[in-house]
Amino acid sequence: MKGFTKRAILAACVGAAMLITVGCGSNQSSQSTQLTYNGSSTLAPVISKIATDFTEKNKTWNHADSSLPDKDITIYVSSGGSGTGIKAVIDGTADFGLVAREVKDSEKAKIKDYNEIKVGIDALTIAVNPENPLYAIKDNLTKEEIIKIFSGEYKTWNQVDPSLPNQEIIVVTRDLGGGAHEVFQQKIMGSVEVTKDAIQAPSMGALVTKVKENPYAIGYASYGMLGQNKGQIVAFKVNGVAPTDETITDGSYMIQRPLLIVGKGNMGGVADAFTKYLKSEEGRKVIHKMGFVPVN
């Protein structure tokens, strides 16, 4: 491919309506100096930013670790959902999968020498436009109220509270293949299905855009997106608990999920060098700056 430099490749690599700026999504992992990451549209921009910082700092692999080759650092990051990331590892089309949910035992069994790294914690916030009429009168929703809204039992805002306008509730969710949908279904909905009238967004960024655009919309936005769109979306407390770093860390905020990197065993070499940077203070600062809770 033309244009490889000692910087991370800046190419048009669109995954689930989001531009990922470190490389394209094609699998080049057979070359030992290249790494490929695929998966969660929540986690992909974080890994992309850390990869860019790592590449700009080191330029070549031997600068990061003197035992590695004197070759340009090339890290590819693409998104398409947590399930897509796991499948990419299983199929061998990516070195690592980016996953924003717990990995199922059935998925782990398909990955030889399964290995995972937890880099952070995210939460799903019940988010609306600041001009949403319900948010104007209350800042807390119970789990039962959320179920009634997202299942379609409440179809208009005045069914939630009679003082509100007779306007349709626009429910926005991630697509069914996204890790966020699985987490929301498990933590909140249980056996109750989300309404078939819900708008299914192809990425977390697209979901947030829909919520920002319409004061009558409601969706489950990632905690990171809440911080990145401060003033443009707001979040309800859930059962009286607001989503904060503290409540997410201690587990009192109930709709939380891990941010994981999964792969096959210990790849060593360049993978270890980048993973070490990911887990360093510099990597943790990026995770926190992008609105997530880093872990040790």
Automatic annotation (TrEMBL):
Which residues belong to any copy of the PBP domain?
Answer: 28-282
Q: Which UniProt keywords apply?
A: Lipoprotein, Palmitate, Phosphate transport, Signal, Transport
> Which Gene3D superfamilies has this protein been placed in?
Periplasmic binding protein-like II (3.40.190.10)
Give membrane topology per the record. Answer: Lipid-anchor
- The yes or no answer to whether the keyword 4Fe-4S is present is no
What does the record give as the function of this protein?
Part of the ABC transporter complex PstSACB involved in phosphate import.
In the record, the note on similarity to other proteins reads: Belongs to the PstS family.
Task: Describe, as the record does, how this protein assembles with itself and its partners.
Answer: The complex is composed of two ATP-binding proteins (PstB), two transmembrane proteins (PstC and PstA) and a solute-binding protein (PstS).
Could you identify this protein by its name? ABC transporter solute-binding protein
Give the originating organism.
Veillonella orientalis
